[in-house]
Fold:
Amino acid sequence: MKEITDEKLNKYFEVAEKSLAKIKIAVPKESHNHKIALDFLDMATRYISDAKHYRKKGDYVTAFASLNYAHGWLDAGARLGLFDVGYDSELFTVD
Structure:
C-alpha cells in the first residue's frame, strides 16, 4: 500500500486515543520521574493535536507520522515504568 487512507488514519487515531486514555502516571508526584512522565504525556498530547491539525489540512502523511510519534512517547513511558498501562501488551510493548 502506498497511500494513507481515511480508514487507516482513523484506525491510528483510535489507537492513539485509546492508548492515551489507558495510561496512568505510575511514579510518585515527589519524584523527579513524575516530571519526566508529565513531559512524555505532554509530548504525546501535542503530537495528537498536531495530527488533528494536519488531517484537517489534508496532509495525511504528516498526520500519520504525528500519531506514530505520539504513540512512541506513550509506549516509551510505559516501557520505562513511568506509566501504568495495566500490562496491556496489545496497545503497548509491555509484558
Observations:
- The CA atoms of residues 44 and 70 lie 4 Å apart.
- The mean pLDDT is 96.
- Helices lie at 6-22, 32-57, 60-80.
